[in-house]
Each structure stands twice: as C-alpha cells, then as structure tokens.
Amino acid sequence: MQRKTELTLIVGINGTGKTTFINDSIIKNYSAKSLVVTPDSMEWRHLPIIPPDQIRTFTGAGRIIYENIGTIEEIAKNYHGGNLIFDDAMAYLSNQTPEIMRYIYIRRRQYGIDIYIVAHGLRQLPPQVFTFASYIILFNSTENFTYRKRELQPELFDKISAAQQRIAKKVSEGNPYYKEIILLDPQIKAINGKIDK
Length: 197
Hints:
By secondary structure, the protein is of the alpha/beta class. The chain has one domain: P-loop containing nucleotide triphosphate hydrolases (Rossmann fold, 3-Layer(aba) Sandwich). The protein contains 6 helices and 7 strands; from the N terminus they run βαββαβαβαβαβα. A 7-stranded mixed β-sheet has the order 3-2-4-5-1-6-7, with helices on both faces. Strand 4, helix 3 and strand 5 form a beta-alpha-beta unit. It is globular and about 45 Å long.
C-alpha cells in the first residue's frame, strides 16, 4: 500500500529561515532525491543544475531553472520518487499553470512525490493549491490573510490566523526563525503518524 504523499506550503517573509529549513530538514534529512524549481539561477547555487533531459535519471539533490511552462511539463512527465520543491512560487505558479499543476497535485501519490511550495505569503499561492495541501509550515508573515479566507474552511483560517499572531509575538521577543506546522489534511495524521504542532 502506498503511503499518502504530502503537499506542504511553506510561507514566510524574507529572512525567516525558509531556505535553511528546506535545505536542512527536507533535502539533507531524507534519502529521497530532491529537485528544486527556481526562477533565479543565482539561488540554490550549492545544488547542480539538472538539464530537462536528466530529470528522470538524476539522483541526489539538484535544481532546475524555470524558463517557461515547458519546464513544469517536463517535470510532470519525468520526475518520480522524491521531493519536488517549488521555490519562490509566485514567480511562475500563476493562472498560466493551473492544469499542469493540478495534474502534478493529483498524481503525486502514483509518482511518489512529496511537494513543497514556497511563498512569501498566502496571497502568492495559487488558490487551487489549498484543495490539495497537507500542511502549512508558517514562518513570520505580515500579510493580511483574509485575502485567502474563501479557499480555507473557517476553522482552518482561524487556526492559521492564530498561528500568525503567535509567531509574530515570538519574533518580537527575539526568535526570528520561529515557525509553526499546521495540519490541513486530517487523513495525514492517521496515515503518516505526523503530529499537528
């Protein structure tokens, strides 16, 4: 029986520790391969660039530079068995990409992919992603979350808003990297044994 793969949203302003968390807790901490999608060749320079024709066969960790929708189409066709990290998602996950991304969200279990989508705020995430999300890892964010109230169940919206306030308090007390993990899909707890923090 295949485990339920996860789609995690990682949200926070610049300098809150998102990249360090991804690198140390996701890429280095798992034996699975990891592919980071980035719109900027200057980011993630410690990882080798994976050409599109090597997406299916590379091992370890690498990055691919987003050029156009074809980049995501190549990933959808060829990437299996690992972590898929969409960094700085606002730069390329938009209204131009909903169908191909929906395909990736839905097929992630069959392909054995855990997906991470990184953004500075909830507003930068495509609305449909909330339907498929397992967790939000929330770092400090100054955004008014009411913009996304329609996409979230009322109790989840309240939970996220309360976490935002607690995080802001911790940051003001001198802990700039404080984060909270918020469970969005209750089935994950039963299947993967994760704990909602």
